[in-house]
Amino acid sequence: MIDTPPGVSDAHSDRPTLIATRGLPGSGKTTWARDRLARSASGNLARCNRDDLRRMLWGAPRYDRESEAVITMVQHDIVAMLLRTGRTVIVDDTNLVDTHVGTLQLLASIHDADWHVEDFRDVPLQLCIDRDSQRGADRVGEQVIRRMHDTHLAPTPLTAECAEPGQGR
Asked: Taking a C-beta distance cutoff of 8 angstroms, is the pair 147, 23 a contact?
């Protein structure tokens, strides 16, 4: 079970927290974030998700370079504003690219917020695919999830070789 990180309780803290989820589509990131938001009675918790922003701005997901640049700027501005107002923010995107996580961590630092990563990368690939297949119009698709897994989570042959006993140099 995933524990609630610091700053997500209803208790008011002196410092906001920026929480980034990491995991494949279907791993439970948004369900976890929405659950925390629903249980927060203080009004001090917010959620900022790129897919929601895409739907809000474009009416449907668009992934071209220009649209993604706009989404990134909008998301970072929203997160910064929420942190400046003392709110804890959950960014429940895949965040599988280290530089994206690093940028969010920098935002937390700039705004004197605590930093936490809620990691869903250990959720089995097939479970993510099965959950995604139940999403209807919001489905990402098995091929996309497998590609994301292979690109960001699957061990490379060198990594696997070094992990075996007696293979270190």
From this structure: no
CA distances from 6 to 1, 15, 66, 69, 126 (A): 16, 10, 35, 30, 30
Q: What is the CATH number of domain 17-163?
A: 3.40.50.300
Q: Where are the beta strands (DSSP E) in the chain?
A: 17-22, 45-47, 88-91, 114-119
* 112: helix, strand or coil: coil
Counted residue by residue, the chain has a size of 169
Residues 6 or more apart whose CB falls under 8 angstroms from that of 97 comprise 152
Rounded to an integer, the average pLDDT of 102-124 is 98
Q: 118-158: per-residue pLDDT in tens?
A: 999 999 999 999 999 999 888 999 999 999 999 999 887 76
Query: 108 and 18 in contact (C-beta within 8 Å)?
Result: yes
pTM of the model: 0.84
Q: Which residues contact 87 (CB under 8 A, 6 or more apart)?
A: 16, 44, 45, 46
Extract the tokens encoding 60. Answer: 């449907």
